Amino acid sequence: MTSAVTYWSNAGAVKRNEASDLPDRRTQLGVNQGRTAEDLLDRYWRGEQRLTTIAHQCQVKSEQSDRVADAVNHLRDRLKEIAKSGNEEIDQIISGQGSTESKVAAVNAVIATKNATAANAAGIAMSNLVDATQRVLDVTIGGDARRSVRGRARGIRVATRRYSARHRAAAGHYRARRAVRGPEDGPRRAVWTPDAAVACPP
Questions:
Q1: pTM assigned to the model
Q2: Which residue stretches belong to region Disordered (predicted)?
Q3: How much is the pLDDT for 26?
Q4: CA distance 60 to 37
């Protein structure tokens, strides 16, 4: 993403330099008369306008690429913070006092809260992405940014779910540590420690 910022910034500078040369050429042609001179003057003028427009488009693309990069980096850092704090809270619950049932409920509550926080962070990032895309579309081809970024939105939701899964996976090596028999004539059943139960929250 940072390479896109540099690319469009450099491209805009090139087009601005090209556009700045054309007024001087038009001035030089201004002393001439006739259809050929008028045609060249018109071509130079239209070329100057086109290059100026392209330079502006490149500037907008550079600025909005930078904005998107900031949004993505902030989301990545925020999700890491959410995962870290969630794991710490879960570890405290598991190592603390209380019944298995109360620990499971408390851990599931932490997971739900952190998932909601992660979803909110993803929503903010997506809003910034849509707005940046819309600004580029407004100065180029037009269109609805929400449709353009729909696929990217799914990617962000997947990334958020992956971080949510890491909350569970890193919170205490979730697995059943032992199995015991139920009633003498009944089937075997798994006995889950609090961290194991959180692996598949209701």
A1: 0.61
A2: 182-202
A3: 65
A4: 35
